[in-house]
Design brief:
single chain; alpha/beta; 5-stranded antiparallel β-sheet; elongated
Length: 248
Amino acid sequence: MLNCIIVEDEQQSIDILTGMLKALFSDGVNIITSCKTIETAIAEINKNRPELIFLDVQIGNKTGFDLLSQIEAKDLNVIFVTAFEKYAIQAFKFSAIDYLLKPISTADLQRAVSKVLNLKYETDSYKKIETLLKNIYNKDRQKICIPDMNGFNIVEIRDIIRCESKINYTTIYINNGNPITVAKSLKEFEKMLIEFNFFRVHNSHLINLNYIKSYNKYKGGYVELANSEQIEVSVRRKDEFIKTITRL
């Protein structure tokens, strides 16, 4: 049985989520209590040590991030419940923390909770929370949580040199670090990293423009990176790439 606490300042939202959890996970999830303020939630979480909390992003004039920075134990699972907030959702993706958009769909709730049930004894939850908080409170040094077979790697985005697609996998090349291969598409990383000065120069290559050393325009052309690697630029992306680098 997975013990959980709901942190939400609207009673109607609490009632809806409670009803959905009881209908979908009557034998798998036990709701210890619900809290409408950050202060009450911190006390209940520190007292009961739940394995999962459903956490609204905005609670009164405070945020769920304030709560996470103040609780004693961070070795728990968090599922954020939120209206669409672009920056917050980007932070969730970087830290590999699940989130649900209001109004909550049955399919999304089932997916998120089932994932926690399957990883009930995961030991890397605190890493996800630490990464999330660092990204929220230190926007100049963003980090991304990259899963591997043994857990997670926490990497500063500015240290990623490039990402390379290999069928259904992506290999991430890091400055002064070993490559990391993950079971995610290059398109997923492109969506997350494009606003951090990354450019997809080829179907198979996403590069950090800050590491470009030179560009040779022969045929489609290729870029030489700071680590001396040469990466092909596809013909159809050439013009857009040149426009982008001339604005650097």
